[in-house]
Amino acid sequence: MITLSSSTKKQREIPYSKSPSLIQQISFVLDPITYLETEVVRLGEVFWAYAPMRAIIAASPEAIRQVFAKGDDTFGIVDNASAKFILGGEGSIGLVSGEEHIRQRQVLGPAFRGEHLKACSELVCQVTRGLLNGKRKIVMEEVAQTVSVASILSLTFGSIEGERYQMIAREFTSQIEIIESPLKALQLFVPLLRFFSGSWGKWQRSRKIFFEEVAAETRERRQAGMSDRGDILSLLIKEGEPDNRIYSQVMTLLYAGRESTAYTLAWILYWVCTMPIVRHKLLAEIDSGEDYMSLPYLDAVIKEALRIYPPAFIFGPRVTKVPFKLLDWELEPGTVVFPCPYLIHHRKEIYPEPKTFRPERFLERQFTPYEYLPFGGGHRTCIAMALALFELKLAIGTILSEYNVELADKRPVRAVRRGAVLGPERYELLVERR
């Protein structure tokens, strides 16, 4: 007879789905919102799931507070082979912990503050205008992605001009597009499927070109002694980072910088076009002539877009290194915990009518870091958060102050999986100069 320890017994009290693990994984990958909403209703605010690995989903503010309060002595990073493969190695800031994570944040942090952000302001406005001028109809997703990639590319390399930088942007975008549909996203989590997919070969070829161009740029800068330009690549070279870590870091920053900003920008324009009251209030504020960074309603609109559909709808898994008490349960070492921003952001007692886009809720009260967490939290809060908010305010301000926009098709736009994150379906806007 097998005797369970008391901690194991308590751990098993956490509710869990009885559906086969493969069915859960497929459901989570193809339609994560339906999967999560169904399970939280059936099982409660903390439950076991396969999403995409066996893990605890935490949708309780108190559970999130307990997790975020602990550092690397309690939680480590899950050894995720798919993430390492996609990011080109294990040295990126998203895949390290402890002192190495602290060191990397100290190295990269200055690039996302102060003068470096201001240097991007004209670029964001210029790229946005260039994409809209002379156009009658645009695919909003393409505009949003081009703006966000240009911004993070500029911070990373100090420029977006030149054939090499354009090739890096093009190959990076190609990799994301190949794996961003729900079906193709299965390749991220089920490696066996890669052998039956022609798109996976294209993805590998594109990644090879991407890393070759980053390597050539790194090599030339080292040979020329160019490590004082202030951009991210220069900071990494100055720090003496090895080539493989530089490649992984660049991929991570481009990926993270593109996703949250691009999809949130696309959502905001959709809500503005479908809600006349929001549009009227936002235009009145933007047209006031005040600096975009200081507009409270614009800030509330961005926060509400990040609340209702946070791109990182389920956040970086943490694995317990030591026994850990989560609410009333004792977790054993090796237990994976996923904080879930989407479910937290849709709790009715925190956000009444959670499916309704209502920016005013962020003007009426402040939410704790455990009730509102689009960029994660604790010591692993997204390092590019300030950049994302900066870009969004500039892009929205530029578009709405200079152009009239409306939906080309009045159909509702749904949230769908886009690779590893959540984004809107593709839609088109009609554009004209104001």
Summarize this structure as a short list of keywords or feature phrases.
Uridine Diphospho-n-acetylenolpyruvylglucosamine Reductase, domain 2, 2 domains, 12 strands, alpha+beta, disordered N terminus, five-stranded mixed β-sheet, globular, 434 residues, Cytochrome p450
Order of helix and strand elements from N to C terminus: HHHEEHEHHHEHHHHHHHHEEEEHHHEEEE
Overall radius of gyration: 22 Å
The major pleated sheet works out as:
5 strands, mixed
Calculate the mean pLDDT score and round it. Answer: 86
Question: What name goes with the CATH superfamily of the largest domain?
Answer: Cytochrome P450
- Span between N and C termini? 77 Å
Helix and strand layout, with pairings?
Layout: H1 6-12, H2 21-30, H3 32-43, E1 46-50, E2 54-58, H4 61-69, E3 75-77, H5 81-87, H6 98-108, H7 114-132, E4 137-139, H8 140-157, H9 163-179, H10 182-189, H11 198-224, H12 232-238, H13 243-274, H14 276-286, H15 296-308, E5 318-320, E6 324-326, E7 329-331, E8 336-339, H16 341-345, H17 361-364, H18 385-402, E9 403-407, E10 415-418, E11 421-424, E12 428-433
Parallel strand pairs: 2-8
Antiparallel strand pairs: 1-2, 3-5, 4-12, 5-8, 6-7, 9-12, 10-11
Helix pairs in contact: 2-3, 2-10, 7-8, 7-18, 8-13, 8-18, 9-11, 11-13, 13-14, 13-15, 13-18
Describe this structure in words.
This protein is of the alpha+beta class. Residues about 1-10 have low confidence and may be disordered. It contains 18 helices and twelve strands. The chain folds into two domains: about 1-70 and about 315-360, 2-Layer Sandwich (Uridine Diphospho-n-acetylenolpyruvylglucosamine Reductase, domain 2); about 70-310 and about 375-434, Cytochrome P450 (Cytochrome p450), CATH 1.10.630. About 55% of the residues lie in helices and about 10% in strands. Strand 6 and strand 7 (about 330) form a beta hairpin. It has a five-stranded mixed sheet. It has helices at about 5-10, 20-30, 30-45, 60-70, 80-85, 100-110, 115-130, 140-155, 165-180, 180-190, 200-225, 230-240, 245-275, 275-285, 295-310, 340-345, 360-365, 385-400; strands at about 45-50, 55-60, 75, 135-140, 320, 325, 330, 335-340, 405, 415-420, 420-425, 430-434.
